[in-house]
Amino acid sequence: MKGINRYTKLAMFGILGMVVVGLLAGCNNPSNVSQGDYSIIQGRVAADEADPTLNKSATGDKDTAVILARVTADGSLETVSSETVHTDVNGHFTLRTKIENEPHLVVVATRGSAEWRAVVSGTVEHKHTTYVAPLTRETTVETDVYLRMKMYDQLEAMTYADIQNRIDADVAAHAYGDAMAVSQLASAIESELKVEHELFFASESDALIGAITQAKSEAQAELDQKLYESGTEASASGSHRTFVRNYLRAYSDAGIDISNYARSRAMAFSAMIQSTGSMNTNLRFDYLQALAEFRAEVMTRAVEARFATLETSDSVEADLAAMETELNASIDAATSLAEIRSAFNTYHSSVIDLLRLTLDVDEAMMADIQGEIEGENGLRAALSESLALSISTEAIIEAYQDYYTAIESRVLSRTSLGVGTDANLMADIFIIADTTV
To answer: Which of 9, 146, 239, 408 has the most other CB atoms within 10 Å of its CB?
Structure first.
């Protein structure tokens, strides 16, 4: 990023200064809280300030004071819980508040000089229990990024789920307690979400935007409860995979095709590469790696959806599943952006080979199409030149749209399938599985 953005300007105030903890004097036994006319929030603290690698499914902490707060207009936190509670020996707590029908409250846990936070994604209701994800360094960084984006961001479709889906334990390990890193993450995520906003929401009704944000928040609330109940890393991982699919369903249910969303992820990834240049090297790589993992999930879902429209055998489904596994493993094992590019390149080649065999397309013709796209002076090289000159979200989107139109033209003009369903499908898969990183 060039210059100082609006988030960085406030970095000097620090993260902890945003939190109001003046009511931490009381103490209650969480197991004895009566629901009555209160909204109930249950959670657990699962953090150890000595270990930055802990994630949302880590083991609990005890003797930690916990309050519930709402975000005020200036980004500070106002306590709304009826009392301060302390965690039990397993790190569990139960809070109650007179507040109801309000989403995105914030749980704040304090022990000594350490503090953790997490957003309550579900809407609290009287005589109803809402769950918050286990409090860790990861949830704390996610919450701090959320607070900064809510203070300054005007993207209507932004939710806490968007942030949680882009920050993992590795990213949080670099950003915890670092106000500058939190500011940079907030700015980067905003730049990424602007791509989606321009493509999908700029001309849409408030009702449609509200439906998508509500669906994403519900997916996040479901994940939070499963993480709270989770006892193993494997179950937590499975819960997150379910969350990602529910997150994507929020778009498809609103009429945004998975293929179009996959295209947007390529654009967003390019925007991130440009906007994260000032980040700490390790933070930047871990953040881009997390985004690559999400892009891979979207890409593989979209490719599977397109192959599903063909009359394919079980072996094709098995091949696609194996390709997905290899792509995810390669991204996870990557230690550089070049290795992430290589992982996507391998996936792309495998998908195109499978597509050629499935549609029984001439191998030489397919090679010619790939050469026109991937060759030294091909379409992708022209895209790279355009992106190097693109300094705005709109310019990045325009460069990709021109690139995708050119791919469609090449495929439809060169294929012997004619301008029919299979030809259009081939062009779509070429675009969805494109490896631009």
So the answer is: 146
Closest alpha carbon to 306 in 435, 434, 421: 421
CA distance 82 to 103: 17
The single-letter code of the amino acid at 247 is Y
Contact between residue 378 and residue 362 where contact means Cβ atoms under 8 Å apart: no
Q: b vs e for 357-383, b when ≥16 Cβ sit within 10 Å of the residue's Cβ?
A: ebbebeeeebeebbebbbeeeebbeeb
Q: How many CB atoms lie within 10 A of CB 71?
A: 19
Tell me which residue has tokens 């499963």.
226
Q: Give residue 290's identity as a one-letter amino acid code.
A: A
CA 272 – CA 187 distance, rounded (Å): 10
In sequence order, which residues have a C-beta less than 8 Å from that of residue 246 and are 6 or more positions away? Answer: 215, 218, 219, 222
Listed residue (74, 70, 81) closest to 28, CA to CA: 81
- What is the Cα–Cα distance from 391 to 250, expressed in whole angstroms? 30
Q: How far apart are CA 44 and CA 234, in angstroms?
A: 19
Residues 6+ apart with CB under 8 A from 17: none
Structure token pair of residue 16: 């902890």
The whole-angstrom separation of Cα 176 and Cα 116 is 10
**CB distance 340 to 437 below 8 Å:** yes
Q: Hey, CA dihedral for 347, 243, 94, 17, is it positive or negative?
A: positive
pLDDT, tens digit, 9 for 90 and up, residues 14-64: 443 444 333 343 344 444 555 568 999 999 998 654 344 434 444 445 579
| pLDDT, tens digit (0-9, with 9 covering 90-100), for 341-397 | 999 999 999 999 999 888 888 888 888 888 899 888 899 999 999 988 888 888 999
Q: Which two tokens stand for residue 407?
A: 């791919």
Distance CA 148, CA 243 (A): 24
Closest residue by Cα to residue 390 from 201, 221, 144, 195: 195
Please compute the mean of the pLDDT values over residues 228-256 and round it to a whole number.
86
pLDDT at 124: 92
Q: For residue 102, what are its two tokens?
A: 């309000």
Q: Give 206-224 as a 3 state SS string.
A: HHHHHHHHHHHHHHHHHHH
